[in-house]
Amino acid sequence: MPGQGLTATAIALLGLLAAPAAADPLRTALVTGGCTGCHGQSGEGGNGVPAIAGTKSRADFIATMQAFREGKGNPQPTVMDRIARGYTDEEFALMAAHFARAN
């Protein structure tokens, strides 16, 4: 059925949003450590690199990372499309739990 794909995608996204609540702090630190090299220790950005802390909801953060991975991210030159290919959706959810807006 045509509508089932959308429902399955919505359910998967909800699962990703809920999963990080019990995340292992060491794993979260390892996954988000790759972000902090450019975006700053707390995701504050600087020196031409945008802030990622508190700028998006969890769902928007994950969607943005997925878009980068799929080559549909920012149309301006960036390395994020190459970097994002190295992460899974579960890892995007960990990043989102760590950096996203608290809402």
Question: Can you walk me through this structure?
Answer:
- This protein is mostly helical.
- The protein has one domain: Orthogonal Bundle (Cytochrome Bc1 Complex, Chain D, domain 2).
- The protein contains five helices and no strands.
Name the descriptors.
mainly alpha; 103 residues
Tell me briefly what this model is.
By secondary structure, this protein is mostly helical. It has a single domain, classed as Cytochrome c-like domain (Cytochrome Bc1 Complex, Chain D, domain 2, Orthogonal Bundle).
Helix-strand layout with pairing:
Elements lengths: L1 H17 L6 H15 L18 H12 L10 H5 L4 H11 L4
Helix pairs in contact: 3-5
**β-strand number:** 0
Strand content: under 5%
What is the class in the CATH system?
A: Mainly Alpha
> For the residues shown, what is the average pLDDT?
84
Summing up helix and strand content along with how strands pair, one would put the structural category as: mainly alpha
Please mark out the parts with pLDDT under 50 across 5 or more consecutive residues, or reply none. none
Helix content: 55-70%
The ordered string of helix (H) and strand (E) elements is: HHHHH
- CATH homologous superfamily caption: Cytochrome c-like domain
Main beta sheet strand tally, sense and closure: none
Number of domains: 1
User: Quick one: overall form?
Assistant: globular
CA radius of gyration is 14 Å
**Count of alpha/pi helices:** 5
Distance between the termini: 33 Å
**CATH topology descriptor:** Cytochrome Bc1 Complex, Chain D, domain 2
Give the second-level CATH assignment, the architecture. Answer: Orthogonal Bundle
